[in-house]
Amino acid sequence: MKIEQIYTGCLAQGAYFIVSNGEAAVIDPLREVNPYIRKAEQTGAQIRYVFETHFHADFVSGHLDLSEKTGAPIIYGPGAKTGFEAHIAKDKEEFQLGNVTIQVLHTPGHTLESTCYLLLDENRKPIALFSGDTLFIGDVGRPDLAQKCDLTMDDLAGMLFDSLREKIMPLPDDVIVYPAHGAGSACGKNMSKETSDTLGNQKRFNYALRADMTKEEFIKEVTAGLTEPPQYFPKNVKMNRDGYERIDDVLERGDQAFSAEAFEAKANETGALILDTRSAGDFAKGFVPNSINIGIQGSFAPWVGALIPDLKQELLIITEPGKEEEVITRLARVGYDHTIGYLDGGFKSWADAGKEVDSIMSISAGEFESDFENGALEIIDVRKPDEFNAGHIEGAKNLPLDYINDLMQEFPKDQKLYIHCAGGYRSMIAASILKSRGIDDVVNIEGGYGAVSKTNVPVLQVS
After folding, report:
1. Residue 425, Cβ neighbours under 10 Å: how many?
2. Superfamily of domain 361-460
3. What pLDDT is recorded for position 231?
4. Per DSSP, which regions of 256-305 are E strands?
5. 245-352 against 361-460: fold identical
């Protein structure tokens, strides 16, 4: 028997591939499913089951394509209602996989259908718990993503408290916990960077598993400090619940190479959003006018989901040559299925064709220090409020990137804007959005607050 965790850093997501005696199961697969099929072929195993811990909010799962390509049934926990054929398991129902057994543990709280899967060895000894978004390393799933008219966030938090104490905490301490997410995911608050741990350690160090904690204390702590979830979350839930287009069709539609002339014509014809996925530094030097920069080297898919409101928005992409399929795939992971092509040869082909090019002034922290000393500046900090409160440039205005679509009226249009984040990734995204909407006098501060804080520019903290 072998357990493989397949971790995708940009989504902070863990999928699992379990093999025993020629049979395999996949838990919480990503949208692109061929890697799981190849793993099965390489190990000489047949994929028997596709298990889903819940209707994921932060990514589109690959359950439909994987089931279609392998014939393996899709398994959900009690209470799940799907728009496609699936096996809705009962609590404590068991599935034989080679010499091992996978047992269903219904653990509502994060969502109503949330389910953990307990792996039992050939002697029925509990070995591993695939805990989905019910239990993370150092945290638990947020209880505010599945509220209904008759259930409040506190109601769901109370269910989560019961699930943890009745289904998970009684398990042996040496059981390995394998969650669906790690640090960086918006599905929890304070997840560890570790992606697995023993249940015993979690009982000692996870605040939500304290033995002396009352339900009232749990509800208060688990609901405190929750930020607004990204706007694409409910849309991904709907796709996971109701169904979606085949990933192969999405890739085929997006895999259309356009010359500079054809790319320009396609953009004008369709009104597609031009998404440039190069690094912030390369983008600043030159880009197609009105394009938006979200670099694939950062948290690409979550930022796309947070900043492009319409999942059906047609997209034309610009990326480093050879990265086109990766970008199309990563867009599809969060439900953006309508990429309609890319600029053949990347931005260089656009410049070589003599097309109009735009740019963004980008200055060092030292240059910013000089400008700061010479007079009052309009400084825009696009970090999150808690980052801003922990320390910010004197006189800076906090307009978080997460909410830029709602905050456009707050950006002064008649002054030069000095924009920064923590290191430069988010500020270039913000600058590109502002430029695309007619706010042209923007300056990006390279290195962000991290670099500025090392200069003599005064910084403040919110007490």
Report:
1. 20
2. Rhodanese-like domain (3.40.250.10)
3. 86
4. 257-258, 273-276, 292-293
5. yes
* Domain 245-352 -> CATH class: alpha beta
Tokens standing for residue 194: 């570790």
Distances (CA, A) of 446 to 213, 376, 421, 435: 46, 19, 9, 17
d(CA 176, CA 174): 6
Residues 79 and 108 sit within 8 Å (Cβ to Cβ):
yes
What pLDDT, on the 0 to 100 scale, is given for residue 149? 60
Q: What is the CATH number of domain 2-235?
A: 3.60.15.10
460 bridge partner residues: 392
Q: Report pTM.
A: 0.93
244 to 60, 65, 151, 456: CA distances (angstroms): 9, 9, 28, 53
Amino acid residing at 281: G
The per-residue pLDDT for range 133-161, each reduced to its tens digit, is: 999 999 999 999 876 667 899 999 999 99
> Pick from 105, 73, 78, 74: which is nearest to 89 by CA?
78
Structure tokens given for 213: 């904690």
For the chain, what are the domain ranges? 2-235, 245-352, 361-460
H-run or E-run covering 261? helix 260-270
User: In whole angstroms, how far apart are CA 171 and each of 18, 101, 119, 129, 203?
Assistant: 20, 16, 12, 9, 11
Q: Are the C-beta atoms of residues 260 and 350 closer than 8 Å to each other?
A: yes
